[in-house]
């Protein structure tokens, strides 16, 4: 079934591209971009190789039509390797939105509507200096894109920028029955007090509602138990800093994620009145990430960067010694640049080690995990005038 759907989808995409490229276009112009990430990944744990594979991690195909001077769209499909389907590949709609420029008569502002970027933390401006995702994306605090709308603008005199957003809250891969009726609300700011230093942060408020429903029947007593987990409130915030002077750039971020939930347990037995128990539960996680990037093209004859990253993450602050740490080091070698010096082909090499708090590692047999990745990241674009 998936095989047939994938073939029909790909045939539809090819037909749409053919139409776009061969018939007169009503838009002022259409920008076509293709970005591909070819990756090799080796993972070892406890002295054993647990993964060694070459894959297509990302295959973005983007159309950006300008409908007029102030309205443009973006539609991005993501093709990727996946074992979920018989063909070994998957397809997602990553972005699909309209952008309306200068709706208000002051400093430059835009309104985006559709499947848009998630403006929480650094996930929307993370350019993957290392192969790994931004911390909030990696630890699933937020998805990198979501359905909703966002109003963005710049502060006067280059002092910074801001974003106000409303999202479904479940991320761009969740639709229909997997989306609850409550919206998530976002505020994001960036301040630039002096050139080279950026400070900022984000706040996300949500009422996720029911995320789980479990039914269980005991064979001996025929008692039926029904568990309903309701997440009453969710609050997540991030604090961000970026320092960039000369050949050195450093990203820093602190994340805090908080759920306030109620678990309702209802037990029904034959000939006995139902019993209902409610348990309040607070789930808290937090962590931080630091990423230094050193540009060495001015120091030696090598067009590239040295990159480092340190992540700390505690997925449940109420459980003692539950945290983990990941250290990463590597380099980016820019093999081809465009006439405007934008990287077109980049070779990335990363080595990472993830290790756990000692007590937890003994209880759950969590041994250190090593990962080595090589990635060729390449992209090109073309503009199709009307």
What features would you describe in this structure?
The structure is a single chain. With 386 residues, the chain is mainly beta. Helix content is 8%, strand content 62%. It has 3 helices and 17 strands. The chain has helices spanning 2-22, 135-138, 358-364, and strands at 29-45, 48-66, 71-81, 89-101, 109-117, 145-154, 160-167, 184-194, 197-206, 209-217, 224-245, 248-269, 272-295, 304-314, 324-337, 343-356, 369-385. Strands 1-2-3-4-5-6-7-8-9-11-12-13-14-15-16-17 form a 16-stranded antiparallel barrel. The longest helix is centred in the first third of the chain and has 21 residues, at 2-22. It is globular. The relative contact order is 0.12.
The assigned structural class equals mainly beta
Tally of DSSP β-strands: 17
Helix content: under 10%
Mean pLDDT across residues: 86
Uncertain runs are: 1-5
Which shape, going by the Cα principal axes?
A: globular
Strand content: over 45%
Strand order of the largest sheet: 1-2-3-4-5-6-7-8-9-11-12-13-14-15-16-17
Question: Helical segment tally?
Answer: 3
Q: Characterize the main sheet.
A: 16 strands, antiparallel, barrel
Indicate the radius of gyration in whole angstroms.
24 Å
> What sequence of helices (H) and strands (E) makes up the elements?
HEEEEEHEEEEEEEEEEEHE
Summarize the structure.
With 386 residues, the chain is mainly β. It has helices at residues 2-22, 135-138, 358-364; strands spanning 29-45, 48-66, 71-81, 89-101, 109-117, 145-154, 160-167, 184-194, 197-206, 209-217, 224-245, 248-269, 272-295, 304-314, 324-337, 343-356, 369-385. 8% of the residues lie in helices and 62% in strands.
